[in-house]
Structure formats: structure tokens, C-alpha cells
Design brief:
Layout lengths: L6 H7 L4 E6 L1 H7 L2 H10 L8 E6 L17 E3 L5 H4 L53 E5 L12 E6 L15 E2 L1 E3 L13 H12 L5 H6 L15 H12 L2 H9 L5 H24 L1 H18 L5 H24 L7 H7 L3 E4 L2 E10 L2 E10 L4 E7 L10 H8 L3 E4 L23 E3 L2 E4 L5 E7 L4 E6 L4 E4 L5 E2 L3 E2 L10 E3 L6 E2 L5 E6 L2 E7 L2 E2 L5 E4 L4 H9 L7 E4 L2 H4 L1 E6 L3 E4 L2 E2 L15 H4 L11 E7 L4 E6 L12 H10 L2 E7 L7 E3 L2 E2 L22 E7 L1
Helix pairs in contact: 5-10, 7-10, 8-9, 8-10, 9-10, 9-11, 10-11, 12-17
């Protein structure tokens, strides 16, 4: 984003601390950025009144001035004269519309120097209005200080707030009075991306003849529409603004995420952001499509950072742009268009015997998605039995999967189902890493089937199948032998006969219920409310029918009381082991992915899954279980987030891989950084929590919190 003077002009006029920068009316019009310059030149408008000059505090020679510092210093701007004292009249009011700008919370300190401030001096003869960049209208107008190429890292930002959000009101007979401004860096954010940036990106796609599919990437997590009625800015202006913002984004992402998730998770989000920026920079050097994607990523990320409760969307956008960068890079590197699909590699490979009744398939090669690495296991159902368990210790810490397998005598083991992780409102007694969905160990329901999702099930006779379970399939066991069986889920009761369960697929709050409402979380009763209440994350509320008996029940329970669960019907009693997953990938050999039908909707956990906005475009590490027509069990672990070795797959890709391996039915399990697979004492997958670029060392390996063990019969 250009300033009113370029760096060469500013350096020429700068001496040891101050510079006087006279700006002529014609020069100001020429230097208006992007859409504003076009608008004012088209309208034949100039800047009325006396010429303005700015006195800038540049600091010591040779050091670039910056406005922001990481220790969250506060910004102060002051005006020393009122309009009547300054003799300011209508002639000094620029007839332009300012953009919205906020202050970056975590902008890095300029290299080699302290952070300086810019003071705007007003007097009767010298009036200082700085022209804003093209963008949204609002109350703050910031421009690069003179000598700045395009942003705080290049030379600093200066700002001014005016009453009514305007620098001047045409026809008002007077200029708007500057208001002293003091902003907290902790609470404000700078928006330097010009409004209408998506339209500028769309024009760039058209001008450079880029594939129209790139417009979908630009529109992701937002809309492909200008942000104001002003003409779209030039793509070059948007790109320069994005370059100025990019360096501070990882720390901003970490700071924003830390308000919703734990510090370790927030730091991981920041590292992933930095890794994607590095990869996009490499792609942008070679491909114009890379320039587009890098600019769109920074602009959209900056938008999301301005919103509240954005951690889930930040994480998803980072994964999305990593996926797009991988496709761009590896598609261009191929150039032939003849690479196989991932499932074709499976068809060409041969199974190898690992142990009695256990076979493996190790696949690594280049596909249409990029480098792909997969590990598959096939179990003879007559040779193995399975055990599903919560792998955490008493303190809630997870286990190292290979150690757990060795301790339990398992020939192979895989990580299990979903758990609470990035949800921002986990409340006690629930804890991060609590399992989400059905978990049955040795015939005991450890975690109820909160959502109606498919589960990997082994019955008492050792037969394995997939089956959906929900809260209508269980009985809630209360103290004193009292049992409650839900009659419906997420629907207002028509007849006052049976309790109704409400969970987060309904929303965060339920209201307008006829009788008492009991809240449950982590296997414990929390409290009784009247008419409705907040649904706990990872838990549920039970709406009781109206009546004295039900009200008496609600009053008899003590907060913190432990409750149990058992299957209601006889067939359910035969379940010996079970672990919920989802969505269903294959049913009768067909790819299905019924997300809404299996409660992957609303605010249901995990939010990283149910809040997906990409339409199954993200390339991620994946884990799945499948069954062949002969009831053999197949496990597929797909590595990802590794730019050179394994970019990852979509859910549709994963479904095709399992079908190529001979499965007729399959379900997805928890993938991402949680995906783990070991067999015969060896780790088969590439575990990591970070996005790895060329030459990067493997990152931290996440412990498993639930697991499925394969034990010899």
C-alpha cells in the first residue's frame, strides 16, 4: 500500500530527526491509493484549502520508524488546538471517505531499533490531515508514515480519529474536529487490507488467465464480493498490504487462539500459520496463482482475526490454504497430468504378511494430490479380537500408543475416536481430551452415545460390524435404582410421557421447555433448571415432563452425583467393545458421507469437524476402519501436513482408498494430529502436530486418549 511519499523521496528529505513534507494538491491526488484515487480523479475532485504539511518524528538516522511494539505499548495521538484556534474552515476538509483500520496486537518490533511515535502537529498555518487508503469507512484512518513502502514493518503507521468517522464533511461548513486517540494494542487490530479485495483478486484471475476454480479458494470462509460501494482496489495494492501484514500473523493467530484454547494448542496454531506463509511464499515466487493464494490467505486471515471466537475458523483456514498450496505446487511440478489417483496406488500394491493373520500395505508415491503416504493393515477375523478403551491415566494424560500396545500384549493398535479439544467453553467436570461419542469397554458403557454416529462394534461372540447408536438406545441410571430412558432427541415433547435429550447439535441453549431441565456432563449430574438452560459442551440436558413427580425427582438429586448408562434393548446388551467414529464413508460399496444425518452439524463436537466450511477440500491426515465382504477388518492411516512426503487426503479420497482395498463398509475415525498406527512393535505412520515444509524436522507427537487394540485370540 503506497504512502504519500515513496521511500526514496522521504530519505532525500529526511535529516537527523525531522522532515518537512509539503504536499501539493496535484501530488496528493496522484498518490491516493487504488480505488480512492480513481474515484477522486474521475469526479474531478481535489483537496481544497491550504496545502498541508506533516511533521514526522523519524528517530535516529538509518533506523526505520515503527508505530507498534510487541509489549503492547499504547498509542497516543493528540491535537493541541480546537478548530476555532487553528482557524480551520471548510477549505481544509478533504472530501474523501476514510477506511476502517485497527491496531495490530502483536506486530514485531522494527529491526534494530526502538519503536517511535508519530506526532501530528496542527497550527493556524499548518493543518495535518493524512489521506487514508482505499477501504471500509469507519472511525480510524491510518496510512504508512513517509518513507514507508507499505506497512509498519517498512516504516511505521500513523493514525487519526475524527468525530463521526469522517475526516471532513463536505458541505458542513466546517471540518470534523480531530479527537485525541489512545488505543490499547491488546484490544484493537489494524485492518490494512483494502475493502473490495476479493473483487481485485477476481480481476487478477481474469487478467492473468488463471483457472476459474481459484475463485473458490478466494471466496472460502467469506464471500466473493467487494466490501464497499467504492471501486475495487488494484491487486498490486492488495498484495502489498498483505505483504506488510504477513510477518505479524503467526503471533496474532496465537494471541487470538489463546483466548479460546489452551496455550499449547494456540502456539500450535501460530506455528502452522507461519509454516503455511513460508510455503505460500515459495509457491508465489514461481506461480502467479501462488501470489493470488498468498494474498487471499493473508486478507481472509486478517478478517477472521477481527471476529470473536475465531479459533476454529483460523485453524480451518490455515489447513485449507495449506491444502491449496500443496495442490498448486505439486500440480505445476508434475506437468504431465498423468499421475494416478491415491486409490490407484492401492490397487497396484500387494499385501505383505506381518504376523499370523495380519497383513500390511505400505504405499508412498506421487499422486494427483501430491506426495501420498498410506499404511494399511488387514486382520483375519478368526485370528484377532479387539478391545476399545480410554487410554488416559487418572490425571487425564494420554498414552504413547506403542507403549500401550506392548503393555497390553497387542499385536497392533490404532488411535480411537473424537474427543474434546478446541471447544472454547469446556466446563468442569468435563475436561479437554474427554471422549466424544460411544465408548464401550468389556461390556461397560464408559461414555454414552451422545450423538447418533456409527461405531466400530465387536459383540460378545467376537463378530465385528458397524452400527449407529444414539441416546434413545441407552438408559440413564440414577442413584437409588431409578432409571430414565429418553423418548426423543432435540425435539420438543408432544406428549408428557418421556424425557427428551438435547445436545449441542441443537445449539448451545435450549428454551421454552414445559418442566424441569437436568444438566449432565462427564457422567455427572450438574444442576436442575426450569424451562431450559445452557447445554454443556460434551454433555446434554434432559427435559422432564411437567408434573409434581418429575419436579420431585429434580429436587432429589445432588450436584456432582455420578450417573451410569446401559443399553436399553437386548441386542445392545451383546455389545462387548465399541468406539464411535464417523461419518460413514462406505455403505454397501457406495461413498456416502452423511454428515447431517450423523449429527456432524450445529455445535456438535468436535467443532473442528462440524464447523468445516471447505466442502471436503482439505488435505489432512486421516484414519479409518473398514470391513470387507468376508468381514476382514481393514485399518487405513493416511499421513498428511507434510509438504514433501505426504500432503494428506480428503474424506472422499479416503473412501475411494478403502473401496480399492476391498471394503464394502467403512467409517472415519479421528484423524489429523491424533492419527496413530502401530503394528508388530513398529510405528507405521508419520505422526506430527505441525505442518512440515521441505527439510523440516518432525514436530511434537500427540499422545493418544482412546485406542483400539488388536489382540491375538
Amino acid at each position: 500500500m503506497p504512502g504519500l511519499l515513496d521511500a526514496g523521496q522521504a530519505a532525500k528529505r529526511t535529516r537527523h530527526g525531522q522532515s518537512e513534507l509539503p504536499l501539493g494538491k496535484k501530488r496528493v491526488r496522484q498518490l491516493l491509493p487504488g480505488a480512492l484515487g480513481q474515484q477522486h480523479r474521475a469526479a474531478g475532485r481535489g483537496i481544497d484549502g491550504p496545502l498541508e504539511r506533516c511533521r514526522l518524528d523519524h528517530g535516529r538516522p538509518g533506523r526505520r520508524a515503527g508505530l507498534l511494539r510487541q509489549d503492547r505499548q499504547r498509542i497516543r495521538q493528540s491535537s493541541h488546538h480546537q478548530d476555532d484556534e487553528a482557524g480551520c474552515g471548510p477549505a481544509c476538509a478533504p472530501r474523501i471517505r476514510p477506511c476502517t483500520a485497527h491496531v495490530l496486537p502483536s506486530m514485531p518490533r522494527p529491526a534494530g531499533g526502538r519503536v517511535h511515535r508519530t506526532r501530528i502537529d496542527r497550527s493556524a498555518e499548518e493543518h495535518s490531515h493524512r489521506l487514508p487508503p482505499a477501504g471500509r469507512s469507519g472511525t480510524h484512518a491510518l496510512m504508512p508514515a513517509s518513507g514507508s513502502a507499505h506497512g509498519p514493518e517498512a516504516g511505521g503507521w500513523r493514525g487519526q480519529r475524527t468525530e463521526g468517522g469522517r475526516l471532513g464533511s463536505p458541505g458542513s461548513g466546517r471540518a470534523s474536529r480531530p479527537v485525541p486517540l489512545e488505543l490499547s494494542v491488546q484490544d484493537q487490530e489494524i485492518r490494512m487490507i483494502p475493502s473490495g479485495w476479493t473483487t481485485a483478486c477476481a480481476a487478477f484471475v481474469s487478467e492473468r488467465g488463471l483457472p476459474p476454480r481459484l475463485l473458490k479458494a478466494v471466496a472460502a470462509f467469506g464471500a466473493l464480493a467487494p466490501g464497499s460501494e467504492l471501486p475495487a482496489p488494484a491487486f498490486a495494492d492488495v498484495e502489498r498490504a498483505a505483504e506488510a501484514l504477513a510477518g505479524g500473523l503467526p503471533s496474532r493467530v496465537q494471541a487470538a487462539a489463546s483466548r479460546e484454547v489452551d496455550e499449547a494448542q494456540a502456539a500450535m496454531f501460530g506455528r502452522r500459520c507461519g509454516a503455511v506463509l513460508t510455503l505460500l511464499e515459495q509457491v508465489a515466487r514461481r506461480l502467479e496463482a501462488g501470489r493470488l493464494l498468498r494474498t487471499a490467505f493473508v486478507a481472509r486471515l486478517d478478517e477472521l482475526l477481527a471476529a470473536e471466537a475465531a479459533a476454529i475458523r483460523l485453524r480451518a483456514l490455515i489447513d485449507f490454504c495449506y491444502s491449496q498450496a500443496a495442490v498448486l505446487h505439486h500440480t505445476e511440478a508434475d506437468g504431465t497430468g498423468k499421475l494416478p489417483a491415491p486409490w490407484e496406488l492401492v490397487q497396484r500394491s500387494r499385501w505383505k504378511r506381518l504376523a499370523r493373520g495380519l497383513f500390511s500395505l505400505a504405499i508412498e508415491g506421487m499422486t494427483r494430490r501430491g506426495p501420498t503416504r498410506m499404511s494399511l493393515l488387514r486382520f483375519d477375523r478368526f485370528r484377532f479380537t479387539f478391545r476399545c478403551l480410554d487410554a488416559r491415566d487418572a490425571s487425564g494424560e494420554g498414552a504413547v500408543l506403542e507403549e500401550l500396545a506392548g503393555t497390553c500384549g497387542a499385536v497392533a493398535a490404532l488411535s480411537g475416536g473424537f474427543f474434546l479439544y478446541s471447544e472454547p467453553d469446556i466446563e468442569p467436570p468435563a475436561r479437554r481430551h474427554d471422549p466424544v461419542g460411544l465408548l464401550v469397554t468389556d461390556g461397560r458403557v464408559v461414555v454414552p452415545p451422545l450423538y447418533r454416529r456409527p461405531a466400530f462394534v465387536q459383540d460378545a461372540e467376537g463378530r465385528v460390524h458397524f452400527r449407529p447408536f444414539g441416546m434413545k438406545d441407552v438408559v440413564i441410571e440414577l442413584p437409588g435404582g431409578l432409571e430414565l430412558r429418553p423418548g426423543a432427541v432435540n425435539s420438543k415433547p408432544v406428549a408428557a410421557r418421556a424425557p427428551v435429550v438435547f445436545h449441542r447439535a441443537h445449539g448451545a441453549v435450549v428454551e421454552g421447555l414445559p418442566g424441569p431441565v437436568l444438566r449432565f456432563s462427564a457422567g455427572r449430574y450438574l444442576e436442575s433448571l426450569s424451562g431450559g438452560g445452557r447445554i454443556p459442551s460434551g454433555g446434554f440436558v434432559l427435559s422432564l415432563p411437567a408434573g409434581r413427580d418429575w419436579e420431585g425427582l429434580a429436587g432429589s438429586l445432588a450436584a456432582g452425583t455420578a450417573v451410569g448408562f446401559r443399553f436399553a434393548a437386548r441386542p445392545g446388551a451383546e455389545v462387548a467393545q465399541a468406539m464411535a467414529g464417523g461419518p460413514t464413508l462406505l455403505s454397501g460399496g457406495r461413498i456416502v458421507l452423511p454428515l447431517a444425518e450423523e449429527d456432524f452439524t450445529g455445535l456438535a463436537e468436535p467443532l473442528t469437524f462440524t464447523q468445516d466450511e471447505t466442502g471436503d477440500q482439505n488435505l489432512l491426515p486421516r484414519l479409518a476402519l473398514g470391513l470387507t465382504a468376508d468381514h476382514e477388518v481393514i485399518v487405513a492411516a493416511v499421513d498428511g501436513r507434510n509438504f514433501d512426503r505426504a500432503v494428506g487426503l480428503t474424506l472422499s479420497d479416503l473412501s475411494s482408498v478403502l473401496r480399492a482395498a476391498g471394503c464394502t463398509d467403512a467409517i472415519n475415525m479421528d484423524g489429523g494430529s491424533s492419527k496413530r498406527l502401530v503394528a508388530a512393535g513398529c510405528v507405521l505412520d508419520l505422526p506430527s502436530t505441525d505442518i512440515l515444509g521441505p527439510g523440516d524436522a518432525a514436530g511434537e507427537v500427540r499422545a493418544v486418549h482412546s485406542a483400539i487394540l488388536a489382540l491375538p485370540r
